[in-house]
Design a protein that fits this description.
Layout: E1 2-3, H1 11-14, H2 27-47, E2 55-56, E3 73-75, E4 80-83, H3 97-106, E5 111-114, H4 127-130, E6 131-134, E7 139-143, H5 150-159, E8 163-167, H6 180-183, E9 184-186, E10 190-193, H7 201-213, E11 217-220, H8 223-226, E12 234-237, E13 243-248, H9 249-254, H10 257-264, E14 268-272, H11 275-281
Parallel strand pairs: 1-2, 4-5, 7-8, 10-11, 13-14
Antiparallel strand pairs: 3-4, 6-7, 9-10, 12-13
Length: 302
């Protein structure tokens, strides 16, 4: 997780992120509110014995979206770090070699893949925002948008021996949803999915069949719930291997009783309030976490 130094409304990302709103709040106050929400989220996760690496954002250049590291960085159980091409020019500065270096010092890295070259071609693939990845079954679910280019997606999938499942998801205004991880959240044995957003019946059938064939029970949410970030969740394990489903308070409050009960059958729900981050930047708790699947380096005893 990256602790922001210059959080604020990003006009470049607002071009196709229709979940964003420009609030009538001064920049310094926005930064303070975002920091309070970020620090509270870290405290909540750590209080449940979930390991969190907190990286401080650099002050220069200002990076209003640095709080969402999962868009430029991902790791895999195969020991691979991937760096991705980003849609907004002012987000590309979020990519930091020092973060990659810190990861390499603590974890075993077998390969680093940098896909940034596609930025000059205007083709983008924004990490685990664009891709909801099932590492166990080597599948990638992706909703095509300006930020999720089909050709780059297919090259990434082929390079890593994954199968790409592609569909189009639209919001309540008929616009493509900017990131797949707003539409669906994949746990070990379940998937939260906004079926309403996938309008092509054959695409929805294909997604459902693949999820069910890999042992994932589907918990459907509505478009209205999607707009309240009910699809933007992440299942984590703590040091005791206990499962938690991290979601925002906004998302939790949108769920019906039966949906909550279905989710609680798979993991303990951990709602965290991030209303300012959600409103201003159109992303929620899942976007704030870049998972580390890498194997830790063994430390020699002193």
């Amino acid at each position: 997780m990256v602790r922001p130094a210059a959080f604020g409304f990003n006009e470049e990302t607002a071009a196709n992120n229709y979940f964003q709103s420009n609030p009538a709040i001064q920049k310094d106050k926005l930064q303070q509110k975002a920091l309070a929400e970020f620090d509270n989220m870290v405290n909540v996760l750590q209080s449940h014995e979930i390991d969190v690496w907190v990286i401080e954002d650099t002050v220069e250049p200002p990076k209003p979206d640095a709080i969402f590291p999962n868009n430029w960085l991902s790791t895999s159980p195969a020991g691979i770090i991937a760096v991705f091409p980003m849609y907004a020019r002012n987000r590309r500065a979020e990519k930091r070699d020092d973060i990659l270096q810190k990861l390499s010092e603590e974890f075993i890295i077998r390969d680093v893949q940098d896909w940034s070259e596609y930025e000059v071609e205007g083709r983008f693939l924004e990490g685990t925002g664009s891709m909801v990845i099932d590492h166990e079954h080597k599948m990638i679910y992706a909703s095509v948008s300006e930020r999720t280019n089909l050709s780059v997606l297919e090259k990434f999938a082929a390079t890593n021996s994954y199968q790409a499942i592609v569909f189009l998801a639209t919001d309540k205004n008929g616009q493509p949803v900017y990131h797949t991880n707003v539409v669906m959240a994949l746990g070990e044995s379940f998937c939260v999915l906004c079926e309403e957003a996938i309008e092509e019946e054959w695409e929805l059938i294909a997604v459902r069949q693949l999820l069910e064939s890999t042992g994932h029970a589907i918990i459907a949410i509505s478009r209205d719930q999607m707009h309240r970030f009910a699809g933007n969740m992440l299942e984590l394990k703590n040091r005791k291997e206990e499962k938690f489903l991290v979601l925002s308070q906004t998302a939790y409050d949108s769920l019906r009783k039966e949906q909550i009960e279905m989710l609680e059958a798979y993991a303990r729900l951990l709602p965290i309030a991030v209303p300012v981050i959600e409103e201003v930047e159109g992303g929620s708790v899942r976007c704030m976490m870049a998972e580390i699947f890498l194997e830790k380096r063994s430390r020699a005893s002193p």
